[in-house]
Design goal:
The complex is a heterodimer of chains A (about 525) and B (about 260). Chain A is built from 22 helices and 3 strands. By secondary structure, chain A is mainly α. Helices cover about 60% and strands about 5% of the residues of chain B. The C terminus of chain B is likely disordered. Classes of the chains: A mainly alpha (about 525), B mainly alpha (about 260).
Amino acid sequence: MSLVPFLAITFGAAAAAFVVRHLPRLSLAIGLLGLLAATGAGLTIVPGDNLAIAGVRGIQTTEFGRLFVVLGCATGLLTVLIGLATAWQPSLPAALLAGFGALGLGLAIGDPIVAVLVVVAGALVGSMVTLARPITDRAIGVAARELRAIAVAGALALLGMAWIPRPLGPRTLPPEMFGLAFLLVAVAVSLRFGALPFHRWAARLAATAPEIALPLLLVWAPAAFAVVALAWMDRSIAPFLVPLDVERGIVVAIGAASIMLGGAAAWLQDDLEHVVGYSIVQDSGFVILGLAILDTSAWQPTRTWLLVFVLVKTAFAAWAAAVRVRFGTRQIPELAGWARRSPLLGAGLALIAVSTIGVPGLLAWDVRDSLIRLTLGSGLMHALVALGGLLSLTYYLRLALVGRKPASALVRAAPGDAPARRGHERPTAEESPAVPGGGYEELAGRQPRESTRSLARAEAVVARTWQANRAPIAATGVLLLSLIAVAAGTGWLDLGSAATAAAPELPTPGGAPSDSGGGPSFQPIGTP
Amino acid sequence: MTALSALVIVAGLATVGGALVAVTGRDVRHALAGLVVSLAAASLVADPLPSPAGIGTRIVAVLLGGYLLSIALRAGSTVARGSLAGRSAESFAAAAAFVVGFGSSGLGATALGPPVAQGVGFALLVLAIGPVVRATDIYRLGVGLALLLTGAALVRVGLAGTPGPLEQLAMAGLTVGLLGSVAILRAGAASASGALTIEDGSATKARFDAHPIVAAETKVGRRRSVARTSVHPAGHQRVSLGRGRPTPADRDGSDAELGP
């Protein structure tokens, strides 16, 4: 079973990195190597592989799950390196490994109830990354809210999915029950993403949690949750063609409100982290719309958008972290001239904007448009929500315009993109006002030692070079993430074919056909 | 009544009883013992019973999670607030919820599991509402979330039958993950300031951040309503409406929690 090495590496490395956390450099090395190895192990996953637990075939790898974990681990590796160069969060590698291990396992489980349990467990463990040191009462409060949102969403989804289990067998349900179960699961997904009107906890989390941890907390884990919910709806709701106009209307309202108001809120914010948080809320609205379609045509665009969404928002959160640490502020009005000072970060933001919105003919634009069209048709509402989606342009343009202004004193004092010529030259406090004691130096817990031994000397040179070049390293990392995002958003990465792959089969004793229950037979969405 | 039915009923009683102690207990050690008993007994509320390996996995997970919590509880006070509603009120609410769950077995369709499981699940969900919605400290929130997820899992047992081995394993992992996370938060809270309360847990505080109202006073009937403005160090204005004197947070602008 090709999934086993991936799980062994992710969970094993996460546990090892956590156990040796009092040795920061060893813990970091284990985390980095673990993410690298997990990316490689993810690439070796063979779609269609089965694994039986106690004689029941319940785990099956898919192309979509493979792509999800490979992209997750690869971007996670870049995120850790950016975090190391900006605002370090010691528990990040272990949280990423444990989180992606659980998400990978959850996406391979056919039974949606079990998959939800696994995905929720992974999200709970991953949420502990919000506790950045020094731990404050406020951070504890925000982490507690995150914990509550994850658990409540999990309980709602569990109840909804248990109501209509597959195969239905001797059970038959009145149509209202289908509607209530559908609504429970859709609300659970909305809550998990922080979609309007459940956005309050997500906004606070975005303002308090380390920026570099936001992708795992607000993007990757909720996205896996949404994938499981979509698979359940495909199997348990959509085939029965139950008219659910009211319930679908509520879900569409949540999605449309998130798209329009989330974009407006992101535009109005002065705080970079709030902008990132509300932009996530806005783009998650398209996922919510995808849940409301309840038709075979929803499968491909929704899952494609999910992949674009996670990559774009990871890059945007990393960009915000790099900007905040480079210039020492997260207030947009104080960032005048940031793009002049750092063209690399400017290029990164431009690529992120292109990959989020795109133009007609590119993947991101087309899947967003088809999600709106499949939900709302081609009338006035379609135009309104499509315009709401374009509100992304407002906050990207605002950031770009601020970046083009003459540089403020704060921005002028920040280091530029040019690498330091000599590794032993350390940036002064004025050159690097926002990163006192951060990064490698803090990780090592002491100054790089001066020693006559060649190994120690090489270590010292590496440490000093890293220390002197943290700003360009972070900017380069952001640019790489943006390039991955733009490759996804423009369709250069072939996400569409992975998104059409069928969900894992339902658990079957002894390998019997999966749809042998008493329910009506249907063709699972995405099956060629 | 078969032996299995009797076992399911006894396990259900232990589950609800333990949950009551966990929610209403004023000594966190007793509350933790109640929680462990409740979660462990919940694994037996199924007909037919899960495999011994499945039950064993669930119980070991509960014991491990309880142990992690007990480590975190060593720091800080051992006195909990308990339930403001009181043990009697909570007991009646749980009993009523049990009756509703038992009576509505299957929720509109043929149930594949025992009605007792759904009744116990409903009781746990009702007991979890208070701690989840109005949690005042980390530990109480953790108890509420554990009961919430276990209650949902028991309703699922009542609706869809005995969980398979993979689901038992996943539920065990979820239990350890949840209780371990709560333990980490509890330990973090104790090391931060020693205060175990959740900051600004109340949703009833009215805050108006969007419109900068400057020192306005209005009289509404015989009561005096005062609008207060404070300036946050980062440059934001924070305005709160209410009666009486400004709080210290209003005066020094120390509350950085500014919404959109």
